[in-house]
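User: Structure please.
Assistant: Input sequence and predicted structure:
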Amino acid sequence: MIETIRNRIVEIVEQACAADTNIFGYDIWTHHILPVVQNAKQLAPRFNADLEIVELAALLHDYASIKDKALYADHHIHGPIEAEKLLKRFGYPEEKTEAVKDAIATHRASVTVEHRSAEGECLANADALSHIEQTPSLLYLAYVHHGMGIDDGKTWVKAKLQRSWQKLREDVQDLVRDKYEAALKTL
């Protein structure tokens, strides 16, 4: 059952990424969503997090803003609602749905929240890690999506990287310290 649900969620999120209405473009699928999923799966044992919950939350963590640009600013609030709709449609257990929703609600670096679960902390770290590992996607957001000039874009990307770095647990920071320092040096 879980494999079928996961596969349907993959299809739905990838289709949303490919839609003309997605303001981030299809590349958010390959340069953010999939890296967050991969990071979450690799980090789950470090956090003693439930791999199934973490994977579903990673797939859905930005779905609300991909689906509807009006939800971007508060996608950590709308994301759990969208996740619940999908998971309920596929008959996913309510207790596990709540865990997925909680992880999504607490994943953002720009919003100060307390992680209430290992899964939430794992997802937040996986998301932040992807920002550091996928710095070109942040440059794209700044210069193409937001239409920033060179200096404003550099400042925005640097601040995003610094917020992401602060969100990482110390042992996760150790995994990407070289990439983080190289990105800051480049900026």
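The domain at 2-186 is CATH 1.10.3210.10 (Hypothetical protein af1432).
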